[in-house]
Amino acid sequence: MNDLDTLIEGDKLLLLDFYSEDCGPCKMLTPELEKVEESLDNSITILKIDIGKNTALTTEYSIKYQMRGIPTLMLFKRGKLLWKHSGYINKETILNHIKQNESNY
């Protein structure tokens, strides 16, 4: 099991952000994710994955979780994908999805 698998299987929420450095919506999403992390007081781990530098992982997750574009956010806890979103999304909407899914799992 690699480090990412360990985080996905863990009890702490994990939000993966698949992005590219030259993607406009990805750049807009970065400050929103920073605000999410601040709002949740470290009760979540946010991990950014550059698709250009992590092609094997990106391919694996594209197939396994039907990832079709970037940015793509995936929320995990205890090995389960709780929520997935592709495209730009604001802090409030991200927080709503996190809170809704955390309370259901």
Describe, in plain words, how this protein is organized in 3D:
The chain has 105 residues and is of the alpha+beta class. The chain has one domain: Glutaredoxin, CATH 3.40.30. Helices cover 44% and strands 26% of the residues. It is built from four helices and four strands; from the N terminus they run αβαβαββα. Helix 2 (24-39) crosses helix 4. The longest helix has 16 residues, at 24-39.
Class based on secondary structure composition and strand pairing: alpha+beta
Helix content: 40-55%
Number of strands: 4
Domain unit count: 1
Silhouette: globular
Give the CATH level 1 class.
Alpha Beta
CATH architect. name: 3-Layer(aba) Sandwich
Q: Summarize the main sheet.
A: 4 strands, mixed
The helix tally amounts to 4
Distance between the termini: 23 Å
Q: What series of H and E elements makes up the topology?
A: HEHEHEEH
Backbone CA Rg: 13 Å
Question: In percent, how much strand structure appears in the residues?
Answer: 25-35%
pLDDT below 50 for ≥5 consecutive residues: which ranges?
none
CATH topology: Glutaredoxin
Strand order, sheet with most strands: 2-1-3-4
InterPro entries: Thioredoxin, Thioredoxin-like_sf, Thioredoxin_domain
Keywords: Disulfide bond, Electron transport, Redox-active center, Transport
Family: Belongs to the thioredoxin family.
Protein name: Thioredoxin
